[in-house]
Amino acid sequence: MTHRQTSDRYGFRFRGGENTRIEAFTDAAFAFAVTLLMIGGGHVPANVTELMGALRGVPGYAASFALLCLFWHAHYTWYRRYGIEDGRSILLSLLLVFLVLIYVYPLHMMFNAAIFSGSDAGAAGFQVRSWADWQVMYIVFGVAYASMCVVILLFYLHALQSHDKLQLDPVERLITQSGALRWTTGATIGLLSAGLALVLGSRTPGWTYSAPGAVYWLIAVCNIGLRGRMRRRMAVLRAPT
After folding, report:
1. 26 alpha carbon, distance to own chain's centre
2. How far apart are CA 200 and CA 172, in angstroms?
3. Residue 53 pLDDT class (50, 70, 90 cuts)
4. Which of 48, 72, 110, 194 has the most CB atoms in a 10 Å sphere around its CB?
5. What single string gives the DSSP state of each residue in 29-71?
């Protein structure tokens, strides 16, 4: 007989129980988005040439799949930790599903364009021909990423507002605050990338064209710093008095 895990590695107590209807709906929507991602490239290959062309799109599929998994896991973790199912959390879940289904194709196109870095965007059936095309791609991707980060941020802000009802202890409140900071950072960097793409003109040096994409490396750097900060503060809270 197996026992359901009651807390995560940080000791955050899981308040969510079995999957609710909104969680099941969200899971199904993410699965549908992944299906659209995989079948959206076109028909089943009819020969070796078409097969090899389809396989060229695998890196783009993998990157897009990983990003979808990131947001799915964020939603899953939030529901497990807090177990809140009220009007606001349901509305935020539906908004997240809406954004995922709207942006699934632009995300895939952006990853293909970034991976192949040429005029041919791989198996996606479109081409990025000029800086104007790259500019649109960066802006759409930045807005898409930032908007989904904002939805997850609103989940965490909702949990912070409900801390008395949830009876969060100091460590759990710290983890919740850190989660809010993490997704604030993601949204800010997404908008920074989109804004940078917007202000860069066609006459700027060619090397600057990759700057809006390079901005996303800041997410990893910031997350390392935020995680270190959280662990230091957690050690202080748990230190014997």
Report:
1. 14
2. 42
3. low
4. 110
5. HHHHHHHHHHHTT-SPP-SHHHHHHHHTTHHHHHHHHHHHHHH
Chain centroid, CA 36 distance in Å: 17
| Residue 58 token pair | 């695998």
- Report field, pTM of the whole predicted structure over 0.85: yes
Angle among Cα 107, 108, 110 to the nearest 5 degrees reads 65
125's tokens: 């059936």
Length of the chain: 241
Kindly report, residue by residue over 104-118, the tens digit of the pLDDT.
888 877 887 776 654
Q: Dihedral angle at the C-alpha atoms of 55, 65, 195, 150, nearest 10 degrees?
A: 170
Question: Distance between CA atoms of 127 and 112, rounded to whole angstroms?
Answer: 10
